[in-house]
Amino acid sequence: MTTQHSTVSEVMTRDVVTVRPDTSFKEITSVLSSHGISAVPVADEHGAPLGLVSEADLLRKQAEQPDEYGGQAAPPGWPHEKAKARAENAAGLMTTPVATAHTDWTVAEAARAMDRQHVKRLVVVDETDHIVGIVSRPDLLRVFLRPDEEIREEIRDEVLTAILRLTGQEVQVQVHDGVVTLRGEVENRSTAQIAERLAKGVDGVVTVRPMIDYAIDDRAAEDQPQPGVERIDPRRGDV
Question: At what angle do helices 25-35 and 55-63 cross, to 10 degrees?
């Protein structure tokens, strides 16, 4: 039971500028400036990603420059970053390994990968490991620009009607600034919980406020402790 999510292929930048390992520092700076971008992938002769050079990598060169008093501030990771600060081409400047994504990943999967790897962008590759795009944080945030009415219609038509077989009389959907409110009454508690979970997964949803009543608590048995297992009350002072 899933709804359709935006994929990386739908939000990524396809016209990707790349550089080669021997591209000079000055050429890379020119590429970033002329294309209005903040990072550029480094590709081999077959178009496979080798690394990524960002503005931060280039600025290490400035960090190594002495100040007016002749002092020199050591950048984070010094002396590990010393070689990068003195590099003259992409091979020495690039950050490796490069964080990648695939075109069929959902926006949520890409966001989790960025968060897990602490990066601002992912190089998108195809099944042959060739660069086909690049996706950044602003690209992923674009799903939150969906109109409220579009979100409401998807939850009503795809989640409530198509998946859960509910009618507009049972559960009503309201959306304001991406915040979804579900109101109504269903037969089972499990149905109310599934409706909430699926609505949260719809692209553009900021949060869901569930206000669905139910007649039967069909999850009550799951909440009971198993035979021979003591159920710990988190409100007790001994936990």
Answer: 130
